[in-house]
Amino acid sequence: MSTPPGHLEHQRWEGSAAAYVLNALDPQELALFEQHLATCPTCRETVASFQLVADALPGAAPAATPPPELRDRIMATVRSEAELLRAAGPQADRPPAPAPAAAPGDPAPAGPTTAARAPAPRVRRRAWRGLTLRPATALAALALLGAGVAIGAVTLGNPTVPQVAVRTAFVNPRIAPGARASVRRSTTTATALQVTGLPAPSRGRIWQVWVARPGQPPQPNVRFALTTGTVVIAGDLRGVSQVMVTEEPIAFVPPAPTGPLVLRANLA
Amino acid sequence: MPRLLPFTGSSPGALRQLADEDLMQLVRRGDADAFEVVYERHAAAAFSLAYRMCGQRTPAEDVVQEAFLSLWRSGARYDRTRGSVRTWVLGIVHNRAIDSLRRGTVHERRQVADDDLAERLEAPERTDVEVARRDEAREIRMALEDLPSEQSQVIELAYFGGFTHTEIASLLDTPVGTIKGRMRLGLAKMRGSLTEAATVRAPSGETL
Predict the structure, then answer these.
(1) pLDDT score, position A205
(2) What is the DSSP letter of A171?
């Protein structure tokens, strides 16, 4: 076998291909290795061939039977979310939007060899990128259907006279039965989300506020764990048509909603 | 009164006839019944992997729940050219289990990795597909067991233990380069064994 330029460099990375498919690279090295992968077809081939082994490794785990309650728990959540989707009608029945182009810096290597590379380890790093998280985005679309009931909604045009608009939020009865929430918007004070009787988020989760403008994906805003009280929504809310809350991991902020919808309010 | 199905009008029985990839088409449109069939097919493998990694039922259940709900909510991300639904599901489970493990200390995780895991229940063999999977599982176990112990050890610590190679190097008091070398040699040898097994199995065509 001939020795191409950069052979030593390549050898170094080839040594990392096995650790890569085993998900055993340290975060920093992972980023560097993925950069290298994008430029090195040989390493992509190595990764693809090792990936076949890694994909088979779950089979080496001794068989264990999941409890039936686990299925019940999962299906209860799935069915409640499916109902919300169905309530969105044509919105939910629309075929999914095409996957967005890879974000800049997304180290997805191109080329035919990557087709052989199963997506497993990438799921963690890429799942959050897409705005095509189908049920979640359809849930977001629900808010456009205008379930919020306006109480004393007034025009917010004149800055000299304090004006206040309060919107009652729709609260998902399956997640927060009996809870109430409203968004208070004023020309003189910050926009605030008022909640009463929310349950505590699940372990490792937090309530995440999202704000959305028409035709744009929701942007993450503040996060909170209180069950009754006032949450100040951050930033310039001009043009924001809806505020919603989902349950998300404490550890990081996903760029698009992934957890179940807790509440939403229409502001437009 | 028959239950209304969201978008398909298909009966659960009809759904069970569908391939995973077709079910995923329905799942991404919000079809809970299609999702339930996907769950039925892969829950045991997912739970087995999660339980092997976490060593306890509760965190394993949490991992499986997180993984399947993520599958439900991000079904549109599934791309059939990048592998089977099963591989995709197990990839999510593996990642979630690693996240869960890495929230603990290395010491706690070592305890789990060393524990003799109890409560192994073999699921009943029901279909030809499951029999074939059982064969494949046997092959991968044998391929792993056939490795020199120093190689199988690092692969198990990495894949099932969720340790990074530098953590393994420190656990075993061995240079990082050596650990990576063992991983590479071990996977290359397993690749050879599995290819051989597949070649032996394919001509007969009787396991499927």
Answers:
(1) 80
(2) E
